[in-house]
C-alpha cells in the first residue's frame, strides 16, 4: 500500500507534462513550420520557437545568446513538382519520391527497362547505357525492382544514384518510401515509383530544385546553472530539424523524428526548473542539421561553448513518441555502470516495460560527443508507430503513451548520476 501511494505521489508533479509535450509536437509539426527543413525558412522558424520556449520556461542562454550559428550546403525543393504517368498525376510522398539530390528538370521520359541481372553485371550495364546514349531511342532508365528480394537489392545499393549521373532514372519499387536530405545534386533526376497498374507509356517529370550554398542554421542552447562552485554538467539533447518540403504541396511533419524528442527535451527543462538538480549544471541543446549528417552536433563539439571534459553525462533524445514496448539505449555497452543505474531506476519506479541494451552507433547526435570521450546515451522509444522519414510521421500517429513516465525516469536517473 505504501509503495502504491509513493508511486501516485511521484506522478502528481508530472501529470500535465504529457499535455505540454503534445502541444509542442503539434506546433512543431504544423504546416507553418514547413517540416523544419530548408524551404520557407522552416528550420529558422523552429529555432526561434525553441528559443522562445526556453525563455518562457525560465532557462538562460549558455552564453550571450540562445543560438549557435553554423553553415552548410543543402539541396532543396521550393517550387513545382509534378510526376505524370499515363495522364495520371501521381501523389508525392504516396506514389513516388524524388531523390533528395535531384536537380532541376522539366521534360518527358522514355525509359529503357534494365533488369536486376544487368545492374549487377558492370560490363553489361555499361554496354546498355552506352547503347541508350548512342542510339537515342530512349532517354532514361527504368529499374523495375518490384519483385527483387531485399538481400539481392543490397548487392547493388546505390546503383540508381550512379546511373543518375549519366541519365534520368525511375526505380519501380515495392518497399516503403523513405526520404532524406542531400548536400549536393545529381546530374539527372532519380525517382522512386511506388504504384502499380501503370503502362509507363507517357511519362512527364517536372522538378524545381535549388542547391543552397552556405545555408545558415542554428543550434539552440539554454541552461540551468548550479549554485555549487565547480559543479559538473548534465546535458540533454535532441535534434529539431527534419526533412522539410518536397515541392510546394508536400512536407514531412517529423512528429516522432524528432518533434517528440524536442518536446520531451522541453518537458525535461520544465521539470528541472521546478525541481532543480542542485549539484549539477543542466544544459539543454536542440541541434540543427542532424538529418543532413549530424552536422549541428559535430559543429558543437568542434566549437564547444562549454568544457566537454566537465560533462558528467549526456542524454540524447530522438524518436520519443511512444514507449509501449519500452526504450532502447545506444551506448549501453560502453557505459555499463550508467546503464545499470538507469535500469535500476526503472525497476524502482516501474516506469517502462523494458529497457534494451544496444552498442555504439553513429545514428544520432550523441555520436560526436562519444568520439570526444563524453559519456553519452542515445535513447529512443519502441512501440506500434513504425513511420519514419515519410509523410505519415504525423502528430496524429503518435500515442505519447509513456511521455510522463519517460520524463520522470530521465529526471530520476540524472539526479542519481
Tell me, rounded to a whole number, the average pLDDT: 95
> Per CATH, which architecture of the largest domain?
3-Layer(aba) Sandwich
Judged by helices, strands and strand pairing, the structural class is alpha/beta
CATH homologous superfamily title of the largest domain:
Zn peptidases
Strand content bin: 25-35%
Number of strands: 20
Termini separation comes to 29 Å
Sketch the major β-sheet.
9 strands, mixed
Shape: elongated
Count of discrete structural domains: 2
Query: Could you name the ranges where pLDDT drops below 50 across 5 or more consecutive residues?
Result: 1-15
Oligomer: single chain
Q: Could you name the CATH topology of the largest domain?
A: Aminopeptidase
Helical amount:
25-40%
Radius of gyration: 24 Å
CATH class of the largest domain: Alpha Beta
What is the count of helical runs? 12
Protein described:
With 417 residues, the protein is of the alpha/beta class. It has two domains: 2-74 and 212-416, Zn peptidases (Aminopeptidase, 3-Layer(aba) Sandwich); 81-207, Glucose Oxidase, domain 1 (3-Layer(bba) Sandwich). 30% of the residues lie in helices and 25% in strands. It has twelve helices and 20 strands. The chain has helices at residues 2-11, 17-28, 42-57, 116-119, 122-135, 150-153, 159-163, 255-274, 295-302, 336-349, 366-371, 403-416; strands at residues 60-61, 67-76, 81-85, 88-89, 96-98, 105-109, 111-114, 140-144, 169-172, 190-193, 203-207, 210-224, 232-239, 244-245, 251-252, 280-287, 311-317, 327-330, 355-358, 376-381. A hairpin with a 5-residue loop joins β14 and β15 (251-252). α2 (17-28) packs across α8 and α10 packs across α12. The longest helix is centred in the middle third of the chain and has 20 residues, at 255-274. It is elongated and about 75 Å long. It starts with a helix and ends with a helix. Mean pLDDT is 95; it is low at 1-15.
Amino acid at each position: 500500500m505504501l509503495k502504491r501511494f509513493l508511486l501516485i505521489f511521484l506522478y502528481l508533479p508530472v501529470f500535465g507534462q504529457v499535455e505540454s509535450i503534445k502541444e509542442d509536437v503539434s506546433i512543431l509539426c504544423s504546416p507553418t513550420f514547413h517540416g523544419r527543413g530548408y524551404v520557407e525558412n522552416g528550420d529558422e522558424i523552429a529555432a526561434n520557437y525553441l528559443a522562445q520556449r526556453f525563455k518562457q520556461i525560465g532557462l538562460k542562454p549558455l552564453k550571450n545568446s540562445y543560438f549557435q550559428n553554423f553553415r552548410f550546403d543543402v539541396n532543396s525543393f521550393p517550387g513545382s513538382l509534378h510526376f505524370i504517368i499515363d495522364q495520371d498525376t501521381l501523389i508525392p510522398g504516396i506514389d513516388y519520391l524524388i531523390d533528395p539530390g535531384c536537380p532541376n528538370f522539366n521534360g518527358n521520359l522514355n525509359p529503357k527497362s534494365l533488369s536486376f541481372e544487368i545492374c549487377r553485371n558492370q560490363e553489361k550495364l555499361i554496354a546498355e547505357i552506352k547503347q541508350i546514349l548512342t542510339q537515342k531511342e530512349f532517354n532514361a532508365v527504368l529499374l523495375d525492382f518490384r519483385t527483387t528480394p531485399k538481400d539481392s537489392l543490397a548487392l547493388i545499393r546505390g546503383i540508381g544514384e550512379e546511373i543518375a549521373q549519366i541519365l534520368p532514372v525511375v526505380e519501380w519499387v515495392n518497399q516503403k518510401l523513405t526520404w532524406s536530405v542531400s548536400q549536393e545534386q545529381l546530374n539527372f533526376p532519380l525517382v522512386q515509383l511506388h504504384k502499380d497498374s501503370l503502362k509507363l507509356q507517357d511519362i512527364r517529370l517536372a522538378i524545381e530544385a535549388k542547391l543552397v550554398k552556405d545555408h545558415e542554421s542554428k543550434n539552440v542552447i539554454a541552461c540551468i546553472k548550479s549554485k555549487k562552485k565547480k559543479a559538473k554538467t548534465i546535458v540533454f539533447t535532441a535534434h529539431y530539424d527534419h526533412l522539410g518540403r518536397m515541392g510546394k504541396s508536400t512536407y514531412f511533419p517529423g512528429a516522432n523524428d524528432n518533434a517528440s524528442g524536442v518536446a520531451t527535451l522541453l518537458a525535461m527543462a520544465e521539470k528541472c526548473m521546478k525541481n532543480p538538480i542542485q549539484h549539477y549544471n543542466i544544459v539543454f541543446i536542440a541541434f540543427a542539421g542532424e538529418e543532413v549528417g549530424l552536422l549541428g552536433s559535430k559543429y558543437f563539439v568542434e566549437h564547444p561553448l562549454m568544457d566537454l571534459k566537465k560533462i558528467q553525462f549526456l542524454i540524447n533524445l530522438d524518436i520519443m513518441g511512444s514507449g509501449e514496448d519500452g526504450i532502447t539505449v545506444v551506448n549501453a555497452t560502453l557505459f555499463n555502470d550508467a546503464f545499470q543505474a538507469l535500469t535500476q531506476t526503472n525497476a524502482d519506479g516501474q516506469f517502462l516495460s523494458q529497457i534494451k541494451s544496444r552498442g555504439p552507433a553513429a545514428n544520432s547526435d550523441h555520436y560526436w560527443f562519444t568520439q570526444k570521450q563524453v559519456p553519452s546515451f542515445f535513447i529512443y522509444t519502441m512501440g506500434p508507430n513504425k513511420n519514419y522519414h515519410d509523410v505519415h510521421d504525423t502528430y496524429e500517429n503518435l500515442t505519447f503513451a509513456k511521455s510522463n513516465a519517460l520524463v520522470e525516469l530521465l529526471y530520476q536517473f540524472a539526479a542519481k548520476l
